[in-house]
Amino acid sequence: MLAGVAGTACGASEDVVYQASEVRTPTTPPPTTTTSTTTTLPTTSTPATTIPQTPIVIERLWSPANALAELTGTGATTDDPITVDGESATVVSFDSEDDGSFTATVRIDEEGAHTVCVREECERVYVLDADAETIEQAEEKISEAIPLAKEQFDFETEFPDWSIETAGPLSGTGGSTDAENRAVIIYANRNRELDEFVTTILHEWGHAIDAERLTDEERAQYRVLRGIDPETPWRSQEAHSIEEWGLQPSEDFAEVMVALWTDGKIVPRTSQIAPAPDADTLAAVALLVER
Fold it and tell me: Which of 261, 258, 256 is nearest to 278 (CA)?
């Protein structure tokens, strides 16, 4: 994933309406004369009172440890219900500050993707089983993967001004490239194989080559080379799902660079936009990026 110059909530809350508990209709008793007349006064009721709720904003939802999910944001209190997949959550802790910010930790024992909500404000998070690999173990794998990736492409020699950084786990994202600060970030997502980290590193280095070496004209040439519609935007900031991700020429380019460095052993995951490159295509891409 290529980040921008720097460095991915549903529903709206409803106001609680308190209704008047009693509606009175006063009447007068009939007179004692033979002519009966009844007068009915207008019906009165107490107007409904609306008490607005403070909007809740979830600024971050992530899994800091196995079987746990942490939310940070603003607007929530201990009275606001927290749910996981529509059921009441097991809240481990809830801390709030005077400025309206809050941090809540909930326990989720079932591994997988879950929807966590505070009131009607929701986000998604992937949580690992309590006995799954730790973040520290994932970071050790990244340390092992970097020199293996360098065997495929001497990144430090080609781009001495760039850095390779490790960050905490980020659901759904293996890595990112910060072109402005010349940094490749690899996320310590747990339960990934060593080879998967190597592929992620090479992919992000492909984005670095895109940022440092390709001109708009060369990106247009690449689209033609890969049989991609020339009107297709090179990248889209709105591409969040895996399907949308695979339709971006910029991601296809990074994937093809991985294939180039591994002699075609790693097949691009962008088959939605273009087929796997053959040897001639890889040779043409090599010429395109050669400096």
Answer: 256
